[in-house]
Amino acid sequence: MGRIVNLRWIAAALGVLLLAVVCVELGRWQLHRLDERKARNAVTRTNLAAQPASIDQILGPPGVVGDQHAWRTVVVAGRYDASKQVILKYRNVQDRPGFEIVTPLVLPDGKALLIDRGFIARQSSELMPLHVPAVPSGQVTVTGRLQRSERGGSTTGGTPDNGTARLINGPDFAKVLGLNLYDGYLQITKQDPANDPSFSGFPGPEIDDGPHFFYALQWFFFALLAIGGLVYFTKTGGRSDKSGAKSGAESGDEPPADAEDVEQPAHAGAADRGLRADR
Fold it and tell me: Where is the region Disordered (predicted)?
């Protein structure tokens, strides 16, 4: 029995130690994410402070917006292709649900860039915006901030379907729209001629460290809690085992009384003597 108890204690201790190791690794992962966020924030600050430039000057021939280009301000000129406009559904800006209107801007060299023209707040429970502002005709000049193509893992929300989509993804849009699109898009900040006042603008990026440091502290605390609990229960369990063994030993020191040593009742002895006298 003692051996089974010991095996259970060992199994429980190993389980607690494994839990502590997992908590420590999760804490380290949060610190790693904190480092990544700080590096990304540094790039964002640099890009926000940079002077506007042409898109070719920033992206070059590959035409792919990467992490190093996020929030970089560019100026492009071209003509909107309203026939290939896409309405982004289920969008949310500053806790307001609504829609974003994305229209390709065809540049002089034939390439096109997706322009997120602005946000339209949803009215009541409408599934589509009641009014979509028309695009300006003729040549327009757009100033905006580059953003990476949005990706949603296994979802196909980046592929336009019947003029709507859920994500803005250059390569997926290109397949449906039949345009030579940049891989990424431009979030508009200024337009000439001016953008329609019905559109709401977009907030800037969040440049902070986020909750990663405090999450890491929580995981490290859970690890300490697990180790502390193991130490406590090991000590209390050890004392309980010793006291149980001691009480068992004390009860086993005195052998059961022999039948011959048991004192007979007085009346039983008298009856026995009378019986012998009769004999």
Answer: 145-166, 238-279
Position 250 confidence tier, pLDDT thresholds 50, 70, 90? low
Residues 164 and 122 in one domain: yes
**What is the DSSP annotation of 64-127?**
B--GGGTT-EEEEEEEE-GGG-EEEEEEEETTEEEEEEEEEEE-TTS-EEEEEEEEEEPPTT-S
Share of the chain above pLDDT 70, in %: 81
Domain identity same for 125 and 17: no
Q: What is the CATH number of the domain that holds 91?
A: 2.40.50
Boundary-marking domain end, from 192, 224, 249: 192
d(CA 177, CA 277): 127
Same domain, 63 and 154: yes
Q: What is the largest CA-CA distance in the chain?
A: 143
- Which residues constitute the domain of residue 158? 53-192
Cβ(78)–Cβ(108) below 8 Å: yes
pLDDT one-digit tens code per residue, 30-84: 999 999 999 989 999 999 999 999 999 999 888 999 999 999 999 999 999 999 9
Looking at the fold, whether 58 and 143 belong to one and the same domain comes out as yes
Packing angle of the helix pair 2-49, 212-253 (nearest 10 deg): 170
Domains of the chain: total: 2
- Span 194-246, pLDDT tens digits: 999 999 989 888 888 889 999 999 999 999 998 888 888 877 765 555 555 45
Positive or negative, the CA dihedral 131, 141, 110, 63 is: negative
